Amino acid sequence: MSDERAFAELLVIGVGNPDRADDAVGPLVATRLRSEPALAGARVIVRTGDMLALIDDWDSAEAVVLIDAAAPNTRAGQIHRVDVALSAPPAELTLTPSSTSTHAFGVVEAIELARTLGRLPARFTLFAIEGGCFEAGGPMTPAVAAAAAAVTQSVLQEVLASQGDQLPDGVRAERTELLA
Amino acid sequence: METKTIRVDLIARVEGEGALDLRIEDGRVSSARLNIFEPPRLFEALLRGRGYEEAPDITARICGICPIAYQMSAVHAMEDALGLQVGDPWRALRRLIYCGEWIESHALHIVMLHAPDFLGYADAIQMARDYPEIVQTGLTLKRTGNEIMRVLGGREIHPINVKIGGFYRVPTKAELAPLADALKRAQDAAIKILRWASGFPFPDFERDYEFVALRHASEYAFNEGRIVSSRGMEIAIADYDSEFEERHAAHSTALQSVVKRRGSYLVGPMARYSLNFDRLPTAVQALAREAGLGSTCRNPFKSILVRGVEVVYACQEALRLIEAYEPPGRPAIPVTPNAGVGHGCTEAPRGICYHRYEINRDGIILNARIVPPTSQNQLSIEEDLREVASRHIDAAEDKLRDLCEQTIRNYDPCISCSAHFLKLTVHRV
Questions:
Q1: How many pairs of residues across A and B have Cβ atoms under 8 Å apart?
Q2: Domains and their CATH numbers in chain A
Q3: What would you measure as the largest C-alpha separation in chain A, in angstroms?
């Protein structure tokens, strides 16, 4: 079933600190996607710090899906999907870490710097999930955990829908069936 | 009486959270206070009761930018407590991983955080529109530093491979070979960036700092040496407490360090460079002079050039260390715990980082003390701000605010380490 060449140009990035409650949602979704047979062949990484390094990470990728927690704005667990290749993330979306955190360069800064330098992949989707709690050692908020499951499914369905043509017909059918 | 207040809610391009409170009365600066309001992080307390071997990994968590500094000071302090001398090749490997941290930290600060100040950009993203090649070069340089840390430390953020007595795993020569190729390119990149920065407009500003740094018998110091100052101090690392003390200031959650008999002092690239210029290779000295530096630098705005010189040096030194490397037969010297007190002081990118540990015969940590560079520089930052603001007292508020922010960024302050946002408030009374 697996075709190792499939999704070779796809990079999935989970950003966040696994030990800070809802900030763990990016790494959680990435870890789940890494073990998803339907996504076999894709590169899946977790970044916990040094967001500038993301630019190197996605240099060789044609398509990127990045999952990160966002500061509370409406309600915990609210999912925002942004087609980053088309436009910058909206200002009200404060990703973690960002310029308002203790790190000088966050995900948004890395994206915009890459755009300026012509190093932003042509297909780039950001899933941001609003968190409710970022306490060190704290548990994930139930609404954010539920959002993690929903985003995992959304990524799988989007990838297969938009890039499934990279797969041999049989493999594509099998992977689609896995998601059914 | 007229009162005027300028408020900047966030000073960007620094690591950490704090605020600056500048008070101007009757046309003169009456106070300049760096208010660090980050809650205390209590690392010293949480180290108590942990095993001696845990100190390098726990303290590395203090900072994502300079974890090696904490690991190196911790490992040397513990080895001091255990009466352990660790020579080559482990010593050389520790010097090499420190080169990696200097390269990544300095490259980040020079190009991404500090250069926009001199060229009038709000940030590196805006600067990248006009200087894409420089920004790309800076990113490449930073990546090279990170790669050294990854190969030797297991990962670039909060490395996990440094061990009391050596390393958990040492690299093969073949694993270091790709680093050498990258470092040759990085060295050229570092020279290019130094020459670029040397053309910046630098304010005519100098202060008579007491510089404090490590000085080694023959090397530009990273991990070893005596603590020296530009005012005649020369002490063993173990005598740190005889010359320095930490004081609590009500407006800061970070302790402020002073030289007991004199007060403020300055650590970091300018101090290191000015006290150790003769320890730099001749070719690096020549590049420094070409960039407009003398053997001493007292202009904090030119610290960007000193960092540039140090990046060139770190690239050269890393190359030298890789070429000379012969892997040891074992990754570390065996260690037997015993009761003792140990001191360690190493040159973090931002200046000396002092650690002291007391352990019992089972190797359990009874007491820990950590003095990071930024807490040592707090008073110097406040004095610089007072002086800069005094000289530009009649400047437009925006101009004064920009100058104050730049003055803080001269220090590449790591407020996260010292106790984190910077909010600038100017009160004119």
A1: 54
A2: 10-179 (3.40.50.1450)
A3: 48
